[in-house]
Specification:
CATH architecture: 2-Layer Sandwich
Mean pLDDT: 83
Largest sheet: 5 strands, mixed
Strand order of the largest sheet: 1-2-3-4-5
CATH class: Alpha Beta
CATH topology: Transcription Regulator spoIIAA
Distance between the termini: 10 Å
């Protein structure tokens, strides 16, 4: 998998840009990097951008639920304030129908949760996603950021 991530807007927004094929192990590795990064807070807004050629077809519903579990695991590692509802907004910018389906499946894993209710939306443009996140004036360079 090829991806870059960065923290922008005063470290209050995580931006990740994905290309090529995404497998479950890749997302586990990214989650581990974020867990170790002191700038990452589970409640922060996220903008995930998938380019036209990003293949997510290997991600099963079980894998998507595991990513949710990894984020919740941060709750016990001192990254959040304890047993309260985890709230964040995730904007997914998708360029293909399969990407939108996978993003909606991931959102569905959260909808079944009684406590945690993040807001997750899909968009066809970065501009639309940033507007929904209340950051319509933010200028991004998707080629910037860490590329593990």
């Amino acid at each position: 998998m090829s991806y870059r991530y960065q923290f922008v807007d005063g470290n209050s927004l995580l931006v990740a840009h994905f290309a090529e094929t995404i497998a479950f192990g890749d997302l586990e590795a990214l989650t581990g990097l974020l867990e170790a990064d002191p700038r990452f807070v589970p409640e922060m807004d996220r903008l995930l951008v998938f380019d036209q050629h990003t293949d997510m077809s290997d991600l099963s519903p079980v894998a998507l639920a595991s990513i949710k579990t990894a984020i919740l695991r941060l709750e016990g590692s001192g990254k959040t304030n304890g047993n309260r509802a985890l709230k964040f907004r995730s904007a997914y910018v998708v360029a293909a129908e399969m990407q939108e389906i996978i993003a909606r499946l991931y959102a569905a894993t959260w909808q079944a949760d009684q406590l945690h209710r993040p807001q997750i939306q899909t968009f066809s443009t970065v501009t639309g996603a940033l507007a929904w996140l209340g950051r319509g004036d933010l200028k991004l360079d998707l080629s910037a950021g860490s590329c593990p």
